[in-house]
Amino acid sequence: MSYSASWRSPSNIALVKYWGKRDIQLPENPSLSFTLSECVSVTTLEVNPDDASGSLAVFFDGALQPAFEPKIRAFFSRIADRFTWLNTSSIVVRSHNTFPHSAGIASSASAMSALALCIKDVDDQMAGEALTHNVDWWQEVSEISRLGSGSACRSVFSHAALWGQATGIKESSDHYAIPWADKLAPVYKDFRDTILIISAGEKSVSSTAGHALMNDLPYATARYRTARQNVERLSAVMQSDDSLDEFITICESEALQLHALMMSGEKPFMLMEPGTISVIKSLWHFRAETKIPVCFTLDAGPNVHLLYPASHADKVMNWIRTELVQYCDGGRFIEDRVGEGPEKI
Ligand code: PMV
Predict the structure, then answer these.
(1) CA of 66 to the centre of ligand 1 (A)
(2) Which of 78, 152, 324, 336 could form a disulfide with 112 if both were Cys (CB 3.0 to 4.6 A apart)?
(3) Rounded to two decimals, what is the model's pTM?
């Protein structure tokens, strides 16, 4: 008998960044993210336990991709004590993204969370269990996702998620993310994230190398302390609709700190492109002139995420189309927004 499961799972964008890890994807500081809606991975897992060859085939966008196998095998080996069938079945993974892979949009977050959901789903089917997706179920999926890619553990919850032990939040954990939607004021539940694709090329630095840079950085301790404080501040700020100024201050400081850390290593990385800086400067000018509460954040790449309340969407989109599109690779941007989390297909 063979089994299969299909899930869509979104990417997420960290507002307070996870940058620095220990052991197997345990974070050095807590992070807080928006779950996205349009940037998703769609994954199908097919498992044949009667074929004990342990073979693995990974298809991406319909084409066989042996280059993706090592990462998926490494993930399987981390979770094989829970899902022993991973080593004794033939497995096919079929996945596609709705956004450019390795463009600094966290494709590993959507891909690994989608795969974790499929694994848990197939495991439930094998156990003959009714699929009750209760709080514990989602917590386990978040933990499995973390073992695939740290930030993936935040993608499994709608709207927003908090990952990592945070001061004063006793249910928080380094092992899994917790849902944060209920803690958000209405304005944040309907936030927009327009992602300007400054460069759609491959990332020049893997996030593994980026996290490793933190191990030798003299500023690391101060960074982890600041991130802890920023999670505390931001989680309080986002409970009120009337807090956009402070939201903007924290988000932009977090984004630039992430890149400043990368630029501070003995072997530094520079992931911003000239277009990234031009967009940021244009944004500061636009915000000062119009008083529209739009701000930016960055991931580990050159693309700029513009964050703003839905009520300002028309004016912001008009500005993007007239002023900012010149900085986008092929004029491309993705109109994303805070979303509802994963979905079984
Ligand atoms: O999950 P990883 O190992 O790809 O690390 C992600 C790190 C950042 O995207 C830069 C920040 C974050 O918290 O998502």
Answers:
(1) 24
(2) 152
(3) 0.96
